[in-house]
Amino acid sequence: MIELCTLKRMTLAIGFLIILSVIILIIEGSYSSGYHPVTQVPSQYFPHDNQKNITKILKACGDGKTFNKKEKCKPCTDYDWKMNAKYCQATGYREKFTCKNSNTIFRSCAKVKKHEGNKFWIFEGANLILGLAVYSIVFVRQRRLDRLLMEKVHKQIAAGV
Q1: Which of 36, 79, 109, 161 is deepest in the core (most CB within 10 A)?
Q2: Beta sheet of 93-99, edge-to-edge order
Q3: Cα distance between the two ends of the chain
Q4: What is the rounded (10 degree) CA torsion for 22, 39, 71, 125?
Q5: What are the φ/ψ torsions at residue 37 (nearest 5 degrees)?
Q6: pLDDT of 56-92, one tens digit each?
Q7: Which residues of 7-17 are buried (b: 16+ CB within 10 A; e: fewer)?
Q8: Element (H, E) at 152
Q9: 90 with 15: CB under 8 angstroms?
Q10: What's this model's pTM, rounded to 2 decimal places?
Q11: In DSSP terms, which residues pair with 68 in a beta bridge?
């Protein structure tokens, strides 16, 4: 069936599918922006910045009355996973706080959409590069086979004359 399609038709079909995929991605992104799976984690695993959680951080700081947020929400490191840290088990992301008395405290936080978006586009880019590489290999092979076929035809014509 695919042999019946001309190069122009296949190129148009592939272009149409690419444009359709991009439109679907845009539509899904606009409709799904309100839902994020991390928000479904129970509140005991996902502390929000309410007074109760700030009090917990202050208690962990000991006699220090203030704390500073040293790192924004980011993925847990390999070391955190090896240490089986409780703050990484719920969401896989953590925030770092430093107390006035130099204690360091970590807590779980929501996934950052920027990280998830970056992972998606890296995946899409890798697929694009892989697709272009495979296409170029197929294109070169097809040219080689066409050339061999033409040589064979020329030999047959030369032998027949």
Answers
A1: 109
A2: 67-75, 93-99, 104-108
A3: 36
A4: -20
A5: -60, -25
A6: 666 666 655 667 777 788 888 888 887 777 778 878 8
A7: eeeeeeeeeee
A8: helix 113-160
A9: no
A10: 0.42
A11: 98
